[in-house]
Amino acid sequence: MKLITRKASVMLLLSLLFLVTACGNSGSEAKTETKTETKTETNQTPTATKESEPAKELPPVKIGVLASLTGALESYGKQTVRGFELGIDYATEGTKTVAGRKIEFIVEDTETKPDVAVKKATKLLETDKVDFLVGSSSSGDTLAVLPLAEEYKKVMVVEPAVADSITGAMWNKYIFRTARNSSQDAVAGAAAIAKQGVKIATFAPDGAFGRDGIAAFKEAATKLGATIVEEQYADATATDFTANIQKIVKAKPDYLFVVWAGANTPWKQLQDMKVQEQGIKLSTGAPDIAALKTMQELTGMEGFSVYYHTLPTNDVNKWLVEEHKKRFNGEVPDLFTPGGMSAAISIVEAVKKTNGDTNADPLISAMEGMSFNTPKGTMTFRKEDHQALQSLYAVKLEKQDGVDYPVPVLIRELSPEETAPPIRTKP
């Protein structure tokens, strides 16, 4: 009886042990399963969040473009803006994006008035928070804005203003210029007519553009042996140049070299007063197409050109001409269209070099000495004054079938090295 009881006790104990062990195993497996499920959910949740939430976008590169959309230089401003938009498209292959940042640009009309230019530039810098300034059409407007670039520590790309003082006496390190300056024009203009014993009179608008242009021309021409016998300056908005032309004729020069910009050109009055019939040859830079249409009597004249769409032979210019015709009802790009395009290309290339950084110091380091391709060939920002060295063109105005103005025909391309202007920045 005791044996049976003992056996029963052992069996009961074994049964209890088995039951406890079984329950313990069952609880462990449940916990493991729960942990696995929780772990799986944890792994999946971030993945789902990443898929549902877009990547954070970088802030756009913002550019403020100052241009004369009204006033005496309206056509220049509109050409520049067209070129700038085309340049952004070309340099970004149509994406309007550089270094992962979208490009936005805001155009403001300076009205060809320096005080308005300052007001509009201040708005772009303070309200719109632009990373770059571009402009302006007028040298006067541009000179008024230069101090703001330094004050706000923003890079300004000057286009198309040409006064030497922009990259000379009034320059600061934030200023880069894709436009050529007056001295570059002067070298080209003087090469066409100046030599030992030649007497030259000059005529220009009274302002930074005209006076800087003539000063640079005089320096280049006298080095070649010419003598300047008369200088005349007229109000840029004037329509009657009789008194100026009379003084020029009285000086009996061999050549009259004219620096001019704007719609109110002096060509018709020079023709009406029979200046050429009195033995005075006219010479100038070939202007935009609208002004060329007023220069029928200057057919045969030798001078220089900043740009005419048939002069440069490179892939960038080919793209510009074809794309411009597509977008603007068959029109060809004009005098300042490639300048606007060059300014845009320079900004895109600079931001590529800084990998998207638009702070002034890295941009300046990237842009000094930077070379970039433009419709006029390769330009290079000279380190000393940030003036873009570039090609100009010695030309002769000729009649061509189907064209209602004298066309600038290439005599020879003047290389960037040949037209490099003196460095005029303050020490």
TrEMBL record:
Biased composition (Basic and acidic residues): 30-40
Domain of life of the source: Bacteria
Keyword tags: Signal
Protein name: ABC transporter permease
Pfam family, one: Peripla_BP_6
InterPro entries named in the record: BCAA_transport (IPR051010), Leu-bd (IPR028081), Peripla_BP_I (IPR028082)
Keyword Lipid metabolism: no
Family, as annotated: Belongs to the leucine-binding protein family.
